[in-house]
Amino acid sequence: MERTKLDLWVGMFVVAGIAALVMLAMKVGNLSTYNVSETYQVQAYFANIGGLKPKASIRSAGVLVGRVTDITLDTERYEAKVSMSLDKRYQFPKDTFANILTSGLLGEQYIGLVPGGDSEMIKAGDLIKKTQSAMVLEDLIGKFIYSKADEAAK
Amino acid sequence: MSVTKTISVIGHRSVNAVWRIGVASRFFTLTLMHSGNGFRRYNLIVKELFSTGVMSLIIIIVAGLFVGMVLGLQGYETLKRYGSESALGVMVALGLVRELGPVVAALLFASRAGSAMTAEIGLMKATEQISAMELMAVNPIARIVAPRFWAGVISMPLLAAMFSAAGIFGGYFVGVVQIGVDEGSFWSQMQAAVDFKHDILNGVLKSFVFGVVVTAIALFEGYDAPPTAEGVSGATTRTVVTSSLAILMLDFVLTAMMFGGNE
Q: Which of A4, A7, A12, A21 to mutate to test the interface with B (most CBs of B within 10 A)?
């Protein structure tokens, strides 16, 4: 086969391969939604994180505002210490609530931020003091059974 | 007496196996050392890219399309039971990008391009073309082996990416166009679940490793083949068997390293 034709075919092959990679990155993967904006770190303590995992999303009013970066057990308080990185564009008041919620009935867990009314904003490295732990199904069922038993006793 | 004989047979085989591994690694090192020359004469690589990459395109894309379509059908059947058909895109995309794309593309590549490489080099040796080159002071490793090696290593990740892309399109065709899964949730859940670094780049890394392994095995078997018709056919068979097994075993090791255990 002559040289120019060969070059053309190989060029087409390489371009098609790279196009497939780019298509995978953009259309299939999350590169197009990759968070390139700056972030700031905040921490929060939870009595129980349930099934929360690193990289879980942090949402406020349903909008993605950050990601969980790290989860460790604080052995002084015996509570889970969750580090989160939040998008710099979004600032939250000091008395913001951090709740661990579940998307759907069996979906993955995420942190929902409910802003309070404080005029001061959370700064990088701050602690979110008001938190609510994950709902654990067994606890819920236990509470339900006890309340039923109380009703029956009355 | 027969016990000592059996033991000595085992010993003989082990020594042979170690010997072969040694020769293979020496051959691999020589190939890498002579790669510089191969890159200088890059039209040699282009020619090999045509025969290994471009000629494998059709089989890779058709196979990818059908694998994706089967994934779409089977995934739908299972996910339907849990009422989560919208996760079909996630299943198809993760399965292809992480595992099936690199592995099946590498298996096809080994049997289509790898066997051809072995047969070509083995026949060159049988017809004494390689000795002729040595006589002309042309280094056969730099002239024949290195360009083929790099062509294989370059085309493997590209082929795997095309396989995955074709497969996702196949899954989309069956899932969305034929069965009627919601198109928006198909793509958006896929995008939410597939991570660029964790899933796509690891898949590319996998196919790169497979490319190195498959081409190295194919070239070594060809170069090492006894210069007879029987020897070349045996070497071609060994290429396909050894590289297929190597791909599947390495895939387990790589998966355990990349995705295993710790989230």
A: A21
Chain B nearest-CA distance from A114, in A, is 23
pLDDT per position as a tens digit, B194-245:
888 888 889 999 999 999 999 999 999 999 888 888 999 999 999 999 999 9
Residue A68 near residue A111, CB atoms below 8 Å: yes
Say if A130 is an interface residue toward chain B (CB within 8 Å).
no
Reported ipTM: the value is: 0.74
Touching check for A28 and chain B: CB below 8 Å?
A: yes
Q: Which of the 8 DSSP states describes residue A78?
A: T
pLDDT lower than 70: segments of chain B:
1, 38, 261-263
Interface residue B162 vs chain A (CB under 8 A): yes
Below-70 pLDDT ranges, chain A: 1, 30-37, 104-107
In this prediction, residue B263 carries a pLDDT of 46
Q: What is the pLDDT of residue A32?
A: 58
Q: Do A30 and B192 touch (CB under 8 A)?
A: yes
User: B50, A33: Cβ pair inside 8 Å?
Assistant: no
3-state secondary structure (DSSP) of residue A148 = helix
Output the pTM of the full model.
Answer: 0.76
Provide the shortest C-alpha distance from residue B154 to chain A (in Å).
Answer: 9
Mean pLDDT (chain B) is 89
83-112 in chain B: CB under 8 A from chain A: 93, 97
Q: How distant is the alpha carbon of residue B155 from its chain centre? A: 10
